[in-house]
Specification:
Structural class: alpha+beta
Helix content: 40-55%
Number of domains: 2
Largest sheet: 2 strands, antiparallel
Low-confidence stretches: none
CATH class of the largest domain: Mainly Alpha
Distance between the termini: 42 Å
Length: 121
Amino acid sequence: MTRLPGQCPMCRSGLTVKSLYCPGCGIRIEGEFELPRILSLTDEQLGFVEIFLRARGNIREVERELGISYPTVRGRLDEIVTILGIDVGPSEEVDASGVLESLESGHLTVEEALKRLKGEG
C-alpha cells in the first residue's frame, strides 16, 4: 500500500480528504477531513521520528545510530516539533554528558559547549 501524501505533488499545498471508503462493507463517507500533521513530514523526517522513538528519546543513541552530532539531532528534532505545531516551551534541561561527548568528538567547539551548558544554545 502506498503512503498517503500530505502535500499536493504539484504546488505543495496541504491536502484535504474528501472521501473515506471501507472495503469490508462498502460504505463511503463523504466530507472534508483534515490530514494529521504528521503526514506533512518528509520520508526522511518520518525515518528520524522512528529512530528517535525506537531509542526512546535518548539523543545519544540517535547520534550513534545515525552517525550525526548532538546539535544535528537537536536541530532535526526542533524542525519536526515546529512542523507538527507542538509548543514545547523553552528547554531548561541540559544534557551535560551529551554536550561533553559532542565536544570530545569534535562536533562542538569549546565556546558552543559552554553556551549549551549555560542553556544559551
